[in-house]
Amino acid sequence: MGVHDALSARIAERSGFRGLWASGLGISSVLGMRDANEASWSQVLAAVESMASATDVPILVDGDSGYGSFNNFRIFVRRLCRLGLAGVCIEDRLFPKENSFSASNHKLAEIDEFCGRIRAGKDSQTSDSFSIVARVEALVAGVGLDEALRRARAYHGAGADAILIHSKRKDPEEILAFARIWDNRCPLLIVPTTFWNTPASVFRTGGISAVIWANQGLRATITAFSETCAHVLAQESVSALEERIASLDELFGLLEYGELRAAERRYNDGSSFRQERRTDEFR
Ligand code: SPV
Ligand code: MG
To answer: What is the pTM of this model?
Structure first.
């Protein structure tokens, strides 16, 4: 599930998702910036650090194009490993990149140079289980299936643990054609933002290993908050809203305020500490 901050990460985890996508579009949007490398990589790092602190499930970080050369990317990888993130995805484009659905000029990186970025990332990871996912933008750029496959093979050869094959078509046909030829050479990830109407069973039987619902949570948040603003402004009242929105108890539950109460009793209440000690001394 795509998440955009620590709270959305916590919600997705509590809902039952076993893995999260730290979305570049999501992170930049909540910072009030465009998904065009306007947010710095250290801002992204701070965002994913807060997500990782708030959850226990693996998080795949959207690393855009790696924030520059192989050198920027390997520094980013080292920092992600230190924070305990599960992996990073980089796309074969040049810095600064722009969101695949908003960009008009979709310039791809040279294959050899991008393979160097992947190799530098793999050589720099400090945790064996850290994954580097190479995202192929050839279909989005409109250069065809053969070029997409050529790139994916090269990236896998350079050490990528998985391939994310992206598409902006409204149907899944080119993704499924890619998957058929790819034949599970390594795990294949997709982001069905534009072909949202396709049932998951098609992906399951079509050789796709994981589906990333990248921005539906962010967009749902925009809808819910916009509707709430419009309602409060028009009604000058929240009474009709109260039943429809999360209660404060739900919020406190999400952020485990109960744990703080228990910790206070343990660490901040001198009398209970003395009580425990006295009991221990009697044992
Ligand atoms: C993101 O979530 O930032 C992505 C996925 O990269 S997409 O917006 O579909 O390109
Ligand atoms: Mg992105």
So the answer is: 0.94
